């Protein structure tokens, strides 16, 4: 454990984007590497298709504020929202109308440190009947995924049942713990993991680190996974995946932290190698799947993503902005647009709140922001 913590500390000191930290050494390296480069690049639509027309987004209202280190968001049937706190290890319910918060309870075993803690949450595909909430979190020994019964009939603070671990043994570190989980259109559970600062794990097909994993709701490797029915690995060669979303064509998209040069939005193909640590950004090298879009790390450091109105919407931490990347009607992606630049600080998670609405969580209280009165908050956005 000491060796892992020492390695993580060295990586942080050397300059590593992680959750969007802006270290002096890192800033200097990025300034040098980005000199003369365009502010952003994106893949153009292929096959002669024309990218969709540009759109926009407006902030309609603040749903709630005063949150501490919010990380995961999960919309409930009926319109309310579950929010996880990375550092506090709790899950709360937010009334989407009044903004009133009720703490459901704490997740036992959460060991919050560095970029680890209670991160992504997701509802069971059968939530209406089983009332199960899934969570990805860091313990003293690993990252793991567990499910808990949500019992509204119990008193506030006691509404989460004992965790039933569905997957354990995902490597943990002070940095790059991944943490996003989501159920896909196939009703299977997907998880984005990080390489915890040990770059070789991304290319190690036997490791759960630096991957997108796919499993059954019970935590077994999903039948038909590309590396065999005994493997959880759906794609590999990732540095730190914190965003997962599917479009109307059921294509999977993932956001990924770069190191010093390029952050990425990837279209995920089962079994493909996304390059880390051999390549960062678009390399055009055989055997590696290039990203659809890439950004200077100062412009993004992306976490959550969502799909709405023909586009992927991507929350930026260090970039402090919300990116829109048109994807419908294209084989790749249209030109990205930035919204809310430096208006609300670091942006952590974005999820769909209806056909043309999004919920967006800020991340100023995660130890790397500059909290202002009201931080952190959840905003409701209108997509136009």
TrEMBL record:
Residues 365-384 have a biased composition (Basic and acidic residues). Gene3D superfamilies: TolB, C-terminal domain (2.120.10.30). Residues 69-368 form the Glucose/Sorbosone dehydrogenase domain. InterPro entries: 6-blade_b-propeller_TolB-like, Glc/Sorbosone_DH, Quinoprot_gluc/sorb_DH_b-prop. Transmembrane segments: none annotated. Residues 16-56, 362-384 are annotated as: Disordered. This is Glucose sorbosone dehydrogenase. It comes from Streptomyces uncialis.
């Amino acid at each position: 454990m000491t060796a892992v913590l020492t390695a993580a500390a060295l990586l942080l000191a050397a300059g590593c984007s992680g959750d969007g930290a802006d270290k002096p050494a890192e800033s200097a390296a990025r300034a040098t590497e980005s000199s003369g480069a365009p502010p952003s690049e994106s893949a153009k639509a292929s096959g002669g298709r024309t990218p969709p027309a540009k759109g926009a987004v407006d902030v309609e209202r603040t749903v709630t504020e005063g949150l501490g280190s919010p990380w995961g968001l999960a919309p409930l049937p009926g319109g309310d929202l579950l929010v996880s706190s990375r550092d506090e290890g709790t899950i709360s319910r937010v009334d989407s109308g009044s903004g009133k918060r009720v703490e459901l309870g704490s997740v036992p075993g959460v060991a919050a440190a560095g970029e680890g803690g209670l991160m992504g949450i997701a509802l069971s595909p059968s939530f209406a009947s089983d009332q199960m909430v899934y969570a990805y979190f860091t313990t003293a020994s690993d990252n793991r995924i567990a499910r808990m019964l949500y019992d509204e009939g119990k008193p506030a603070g006691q509404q989460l049942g004992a965790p039933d671990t569905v997957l354990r043994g995902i490597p943990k570190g002070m940095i790059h713990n991944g943490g996003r989980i989501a159920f896909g259109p196939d009703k299977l559970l997907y998880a984005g993991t990080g390489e915890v600062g040990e770059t070789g794990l991304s290319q190690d097909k036997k490791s759960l680190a630096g991957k997108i994993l796919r499993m059954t709701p019970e935590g077994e490797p999903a039948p038909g996974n590309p590396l065999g029915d005994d493997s959880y690995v759906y794609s590999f060669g990732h540095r730190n995946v914190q965003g997962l979303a599917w479009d109307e064509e059921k294509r999977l998209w993932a956001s990924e932290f770069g190191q010093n040069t390029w952050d990425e939005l990837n279209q995920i193909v089962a079994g493909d190698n996304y390059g880390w640590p051999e390549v960062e950004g678009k390399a055009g090298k055989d055997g590696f799947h290039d990203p659809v879009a890439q950004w200077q790390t100062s412009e993004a450091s992306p976490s959550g993503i969502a799909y709405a109105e023909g586009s992927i919407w991507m929350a930026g931490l260090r970039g402090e902005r919300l990116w829109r990347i048109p994807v419908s009607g294209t084989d790749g992606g249209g030109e990205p647009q930035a919204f809310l630049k430096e208006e609300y600080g670091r942006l952590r998670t974005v999820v769909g709140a209806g056909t043309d609405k999004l919920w967006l969580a800020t991340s100023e209280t995660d130890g790397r922001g500059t909290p202002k009165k009201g931080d952190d908050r959840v905003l409701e956005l209108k997509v136009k």
